[in-house]
Amino acid sequence: MYCTVVSAAIDGISGRRVTVESDVTDGLPTFSLVGFLASETREAAERVRSALRNSGVHFSPEHVTINLAPASLHKEGALFDLAIAVSLMGAYGFFPQDALKGILFLGELSLNGEINSVRGVLEIVSHARDYGCDTVIIPRGNLLEGCVVRNVEVLGADNLNQVIHFLMDRACGEIFLQEDSYYEPPLIPPLPMETARVDPEQLRREQEEGLGVDFSQVRGQELLRRAAEIAVSGFHNLLMIGPPGAGKTMTAMRIPTILPETTAEEALQITKIHSIAGTLPEDMGLMMTRPFRAPHHTVTAAALCGGGTPPKPGEISLAHRGVLYLDELSEYDKALLDMLRQPLEDGNVRISRVRGTFTFPAKFILIASMNPCSCGYFPDRSVCTCTNAQVRRYLSRISMPFLDRIDMCVEAHKVRYEELAGNGEYESSAAIRQRVTKAAAVQEERYKGTPYRFNGDLNTDGIRRFCELNKEGKQMMKEIYEVMGLTARSYNRILKVSRTIADLAGSDRILTEHLAEAVSYRAVDRKYWDSVRAGD
How large is the C-alpha radius of gyration of the chain? Predict the structure, then answer.
């Protein structure tokens, strides 16, 4: 007999329909799996047979062939186990084909019949109707994630017996078993499969409450606080440079508390990426807060940008629509930092392999911090022990093309004793976030119907359309461009930051004071790198 069921695979960062076909015929007893399979997928033969046997399903020895189509798609992982088991039971006559129609099966089987969680459930479930399915059966551990999708019925199963009882009820007794094949149900009937509903706003509150830090804990450093507010309001890249202990890392770690809220579309996209990468917690069906990723400076190229076999999203994709924080920026390998140049410009990263090219989204805010030299105190020569050559060598680890992609550079000064010991109250994250949220709402309204979401997303055409300067602003920008020796890229980034500063000020137009503040954030990097080139 022949039976087919629907499952799906993850190809890069997208779901692909997979048809699991089972054919049982007379002949030499064998169990063959075909269809361009990875080793862990091919091992499903042993997992499925043991899981079925330990769940009370017994087969007569036959010639069994199972095909995972299309054969051109490389199948990886163990998410096909449940579909293979159901398809095999259908081929032996346990279920008629009609009972399996319109159902998509996902799940890894343990040898005792338990169904384990798998990666990429949200991406697959969201396309279930495109695959011709209105019901999806997934592991119980993925239920919250799968139930985010509302246009299909999503059922979570703990074990294979639950699935068998559900399908037998749909079959209404229409079973035509092969000789010597039978099912021994457990003495205690299994509980029915579960479904669930996800409340996005409740999830948002729960996830935000777990942050445990606040900007009011940052003493002094008004300039750092202001720069962080502008950066997150418009999704601009920020570099903080200054001596050790000035509060750079402390400021960066509190940035998640002021990030603008995600839209429903952004939350789904963020969750899909983390689900495919296997970094989504089981009890978090939907990521309602923006990600904050802080890889160590020993991170590899594949871990940072994506790659491996099969290619998976890297840290820059896991930080999509959130923050990628690089602490001690100069300690990262120079070639590794230069790999970020294309994603910072395009908002995605392309991984090319023999099997094809995979594109992962990577629109993130780059927040970086570093010391100006090895000892950390340049240009204060009363404390700094580094020679000009040592400082030059230290700063040269950051290439100018990479630095040119940083929208803002701000200097962190040593915190004064009075600021540390004083009893003054500093502005809380909640107060800052109110302004950030208001500015984000202005941008959302302005860019409705365009491919942009934040000012930092603007390309050249968008800058010309939305960042127009008045007569005084154009004259001021002309002088700045010539005096500072700006590139076309840095010119555009100043205009985008100016647009965000104007939004925070509630201004429809970019005024000269907004432009002047944006320019001040381009002068700090030149203070360090240009002075070193000049031998100061």
Answer: 28
